[in-house]
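Annex B. Sample input.
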Amino acid sequence: MNSPKHNTEYISAINVTQTSEEVYKFNFSTNGEREKNSWWYIFCLKCRQKEVGPGWEPGCWPKTCPHPYCPSYRHVARILALLVTVALFWGVVLAVMGSDAKPGGQLFNIAVLVVFAYLGGWVFRMLTLPALVGMLLVGIVYKNVGLIHIEGHYTELVSILRKIALVVIFTRAGLDLDPVALKKLYCRVLFLALVPWCTEAAVIATTVHYLLNLPWPFAILCGSIIAAVAPAVVVPCLFRLRTKGYGVAKGIPTLIIAVAGIDDAASVIAFGVGTSMLFGSNSVTYDLLLSPVSIAAGILYGLIWGFIVKYVPERSDPYVVPLRILMLTGGGLLAVLGFERSSLEGAGPLAVIISSFTSIYFWTKQGWNIEDNPVATAFEIFWMICEPILFGLTGTQIVLKELDLKFVTVTVMCVAIAFVSRIFITIIAASGSSLNFKEKLFIALSWMAKASVQAALGPAVLEVALNNKNQDHIVYSRTIVMVCIISILLTAPAGAIIVSLSGTRLLTKAKPSNEQWRRGPRPSIRDITLNSEDEENGTSVSNDLQVQECISDVAKSECTAADDRSDKI
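Annex B, continued. Sample output.
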């Protein structure tokens, strides 16, 4: 039998053990909370992709790769599958093309450039900056380090890749236009689109003519290209704001996206007319008569093709989505490549915008929601492929040792002057509308970014000049390309940051009870899952937590109702 002394020592040992366990648990929980508040934990949590639906992973995976510091097994397996697919594809190309697909060959260098451009875009996206800027910088570094030199028949391949990217850009621009909003506010939208566009084009043309010594025809062409708004930068930022309800009460996101599409169409028309008159071998009178014919041909082609896609394929066909994707893609490629062969270069891109807009107009009447459009989602995927190709190859046009510091400084000054002029003109043009000053200022700031249109049309001008083999025209066209690239590097990151930061301060947030408030547009593949902000409490609750809270609230209400019924019984 144990003595009281031994019992006291035993009880003391138990108390010490319990106390040490409590201290360990407290320290563990404190370290866990401290770890969750660290910048590294938050950064890894943001970078980690959210998974949809149940999945499988090996039993050792959570210990070997803890959450959220390592990606999920599904994500790693997906990357490995893509790498294996790329390796297999490269093996097939190597077997067909031979030495050009080997390391050091031109085709291999182009493929590696595209891969590194995508990685550069991913890095910039993690920094909440436009991915296209990282892709452009990768192309510039790649060219100036001497890792790529495109010549021979691969110049034709690069030209075709640019044209494919052009079709994707302008198809997305047409599909993003809202026919209902344009029908209601077409006068206001056209006024807000064309007046600032003409002002910025005129300012750019005047400044580059007097400061960069570009002849007036090339200066006007440069101004018409630079004046276009970049949907690739503006649209994702606006989608994030619209998902949170900012500006939707007055339709500001729809207005900005619509104006961006019209700006692109105006730049495409000016590009077609300008290139026909500058590089054509015909008389000035013939070119002046040909310009309206080119515009009319592009509009007519777009209307007819959009009308055809309305009936073919049939709306209830189980394969209607892939068939419509193929129809729009094929029609756009035929328009761009076909009109180029017939000396009507400007009609092609215009036909692409008109055909995609006409198609979405008819599809919405057939019951498709413009914000839940599977064809538009497919072209988002196409753009994910074409974006690093376009901006990576565009970056290779810059040779740093040929750049003059004075030229860069003057170009930056020209773009800044045009940007400030457009802000003032936009605010003045929006006078008389229901928008307040803050909303007018936000609209003006959102139209500053330059990106995809400049990256597509600038090199296209140089390509036409190289085909004509006029040395003066080639020099002037290279100047236009330099101005386009510098404007992208200057305005794309600044525009994305300004739109993202100023949107919550300059726009009014619609309440969920507002009839015009919508939960969000067709979700973009590139967007990170958004958080719903509780402005009153200053907290942020993720969508998944909101769903869980809603489920728990429903469960509580059901339990309460069951208790009430039992009490009555």
